Amino acid sequence: MRITEECISCGTCVDSCPVDAIVESGEIYAIIDECTECQTCVDTCPVNAISD
Q1: pLDDT mean over 28-49
Q2: What's the pLDDT band for 52 if we cut at 50, 70, 90?
Q3: Cα Rg for the chain, rounded, in angstroms?
Q4: What is d(CA 45, CA 41) in angstroms, rounded to the nearest whole number?
Q5: How many domains are contained in the chain?
Q6: Distances (CA, A) of 36 to 3, 6, 19, 23, 25
Q7: Domain range for 19
Q8: Share of residues in the chain with pLDDT > 70 (%)
Q9: pTM of the prediction?
Q10: How far is residue 22 CA from its own chain's centroid?
Q11: Rounded distance, CA 9 to CA 7, Å?
Q12: Which CATH number do you get for residue 40?
């Protein structure tokens, strides 16, 4: 999973992640190794900025 440049840094994905695998990384967020690929963040991103 990765967060693309379309990210608007709204934080919705951070709040939805059950394993705290999304962190701030500069101007956008990033998904770290703890990601279980449950895709909850994909479903909650308002701008579709998360892909696998």
Answers
A1: 96
A2: confident
A3: 9
A4: 6
A5: 1
A6: 15, 22, 8, 15, 19
A7: 2-51
A8: 100
A9: 0.86
A10: 5
A11: 6
A12: 3.30.70.20
